[in-house]
Amino acid sequence: MTAGTAPLPSVPPPSVPLLSVRDVTMTFPGRRGGRSAPVRAVDGVSFDLAAGKTLGLVGESGCGKSTTGRMIVRLLEPTTGSITYDGRDISRLGRRELKPLRKDLQMVFQDPHSSLNPRQTVARIIADPLLVQGMAAAGARKRAAELMEMTGLIPEHIDRYPHEFSGGQAQRIGIARALATGPRLIVADEPVSALDVSVQAQIVNLMERLQRELGLAYLFIAHDLSVVKRVCNRVAVMYLGRIVEVGDKERVYAAPAHPYTQALLSAVPLPDPVAERARERITLLGDPPSPAAPPSGCTFHPRCPKAQEICRTEAPLLRVAAPGEAREVACHFAAADNP
Ligand SMILES: Nc1ncnc2c1ncn2[C@@H]1O[C@H](COP(=O)(O)OP(=O)(O)O)[C@@H](O)[C@H]1O
Ligand code: SF4
Ligand SMILES: [Mg+2]
C-alpha cells in the first residue's frame, strides 16, 4: 500500500475544499525507448486546498513537486487517482472539456524569462489566454493594460518585449498572464526561486495582495521551507514522490514530526543570532535516490538519522501523529518524538 492510501485526516476541513487531490500517481515511461525503468514521479499524493488559501509544497529537486502542480492544472493527466476541482472530477477530462476550466486554473513558472515567449510583446503575452477564450483583440489589449497596472508594471510598456524587463518585472508579467482569465486557483511553481532575494520579497508581497483582493487559492511550490513560511496556511513536505508530512503551518514549523522535515527546517537560518549559533544542523547524507529505483520500506531510510530495522521493509503510512491534530506524518517513529 502506498502512503497516499492512508485514511483521510480525522479533522475535517471547515467547508468543501476548492481542490481535492486523492491518491494521485504519475508514472513516466522509461527513457531510451522504454528500455530504462519507468519513473514513478508522484506516488499516491492526497491533499485538500480551500478557496482563498495557500498550501505550500516543499521538497528537494526531483521529488515530484512540478509534476504534481502540472497534474492539478491538467497540463498532465495523472496515471491514477482523482483531482476534484469545485466538486467535479477533472482528472480524466479531454482537451475540449478542459478548455473552459483553463480560465480557473492557472500556473506561474519558475524562470520568468524562459516561460515568456521572447518574440511576443507583453500585450500579446498577457492577452493570449483571453484571445484563446474568445475575447476580441481590443478588449483583450485593454484588459492586459489593466493587469499590468494591477501587478505593478507600467501600462505604457505594453508593447515592449520580455528581454526589456528585469527578472522581477518579468515575473510580474507571468503573474499578470496567469490572472488574465480571472482564475480561482494558481499553481505557483517556485515563482521566486530564480530571483534575487530582495526581489523575492516584492513578488511574495504582490502575490499576497492579489490573494486578498481576488480571493485566489495558491499551491505555492518551493524547494525550501523558508520561502513558503510567510505565504502558506498549510504546508506539505514531499520526498521521492510522496507527502511525508502535511499540516497547519504553525504546527509543522514549531514542531516538525518527520525526520526529513526536521532536516529541511534545520537548514533554515533563524533570525535570532544567539538561537542560530546554538541550534543543531541536521545534515542529510547523499542525494535523494532516483524515483526509478526507490529504496525499500520507508524510501527515506538510507538518509534518515533515526532509521531502524523496520524502516527497511515497511513503508510508513501518512497518518495523524497525535489525536485531534491537524497534521499527518509518514514515519514509524513520528509519535515518539511528539508525545
Ligand atoms: N516528462 C518526464 N519524463 C520522464 N521523467 C520525468 C518527466 N518529468 C519529470 N520527470 C522525473 O520525475 C521526477 C520528478 O520531477 P519533478 O516533478 O520535475 O520534480 P521537482 O519539481 O520536485 O524538482 C524526476 O525524477 C524527474 O526526472
Ligand atoms: S520511518 Fe524510519 S526511515 Fe522513515 S523517516 Fe521514520 S524513522 Fe526515518
Ligand atoms: Mg520543479
UniProtKB/TrEMBL annotation:
CDD domains assigned to the protein according to its UniProt record, in alphabetical order: ABC_NikE_OppD_transporters
Residue ranges of every copy of the ABC transporter domain listed in the record: 19-265
Signal peptide location: none
Keyword ATP-binding recorded: yes
Name of this protein: ABC transporter domain-containing protein
Family from the record: Belongs to the ABC transporter superfamily.
Pfam families with a match to the protein in the record: ABC_tran, oligo_HPY
Stored NCBIfam families: oligo_HPY
Record keywords, A-Z: ATP-binding, Nucleotide-binding, Transport
Keyword Cell inner membrane: no
InterPro entries on file: AAA+_ATPase (IPR003593), ABC_transp_ATP-bind (IPR050319), ABC_transporter-like_ATP-bd (IPR003439), ABC_transporter-like_CS (IPR017871), Oligopep_ABC_C (IPR013563), P-loop_NTPase (IPR027417)
Natural source organism: Streptomyces hiroshimensis
Gene3D superfamilies reported in the protein's UniProt record: P-loop containing nucleotide triphosphate hydrolases
